[in-house]
Amino acid sequence: MVLLAAGVTGCSKNEEKINIGYMGTLSGRYSDLGQATLQGVMLAIEVSPVGERVNLVVRDDYGRPAEGAALLDEFSEAGVKYIIGPNLSSVASTVVPLLGTYGIFMMSPTASTSSLAGKKDNFARIIPNNSRKQTEGMSSYLINKLKINDIVILYDARNASYSNDIVKTFTESFMNHGGSIRDVRPFNPDSRERLGSLIEKDSANPPELYYVIGSAMDTSLIIWQMKKRGFGSKILIRKWATSDDFYRLGGEAVEGVMLFDYYVDQNSPAYAEFAKAYKNRFQKEPSWMNVYGYEAAMLLLNGLDDIQSGTNFVAALSKASAKGELFTDIEFDEYGDSYLPLHYFIIEKGETAYQGIAE
């Protein structure tokens, strides 16, 4: 897919517009993530005073690392120096090491692999990486607050940079806190393997909790298999899964599902203004994916003048974050890795119900 979308008109005829790229997964199994974050990016450009100076250059990486790497040539030829994206950690892991060669800077809304943390590489991101601190907080909460000690992990092996990262750090921290990981089972959405086969061996003795690390479609289908078999296990999922498709496909089966996430105050004036603008533009309620796309774009736009005047990329983003859009407590370290406090949620009546801080 190739699309060149101009920003809001009104720019001086003598002022050349800035081409900003969007690299996302707009086709295929993970397209819900790319399409939703793109909507957030589009809205940010439309409402930002800086947006009238911007042309948004959109490219589809199809969720494939090699495709993402090849797109850097296209962006470079189009004069793009700043890219919002990618969505998937597997794509980011391939693309980010190449950015310096092209002189391109990248802000990802959703790529959380820890393999890119602690590096000076022209890369920053809104979502915190899958750090030890994150999994320590989750493990402590599960064991000490929820009294869960027996877990089976099911994970999507295709997005390995994301899933393997989480499995490794979570397994180590959960066991260090005294918990038991009964089994770790990969699945590949591209194979013909029945998702129900992942849990067949547990029929006589289901675990206390399944931790499912996968896309909206696969996670909802796995949950349906658990419910169909009458398993009473609790279910923990990742933010990655909670798109509109997850609730549509999961229906009543996802009631009571747990997740750890980062908190956005939906009662704040900033969120109310964002939600109103989003509903007017797209005729539906915003999701977390729209929020992250919007916030990534807003931080880049708010820092654009400083970046262009020679301010360090990460320093400019840190300065922009102090103004506060939707994440008023976000912090960036010197490497462009963000920090947000972790919170605990349960899905109730098709929505994530806030239960409290998990750290």
TrEMBL record:
The keyword Signal applies. It comes from the Bacteria. Signal peptide: none annotated. Residues 17-323 form the Leucine-binding protein domain. InterPro entries: BCAA_transport, Leu-bd, Peripla_BP_I. The keyword Signal applies. Keywords: Receptor, Signal. Belongs to the leucine-binding protein family. PANTHER family: LEUCINE-SPECIFIC-BINDING PROTEIN, PERIPLASMIC BINDING PROTEIN OF ABC TRANSPORTER FOR NATURAL AMINO ACIDS. This is Extracellular ligand-binding receptor.
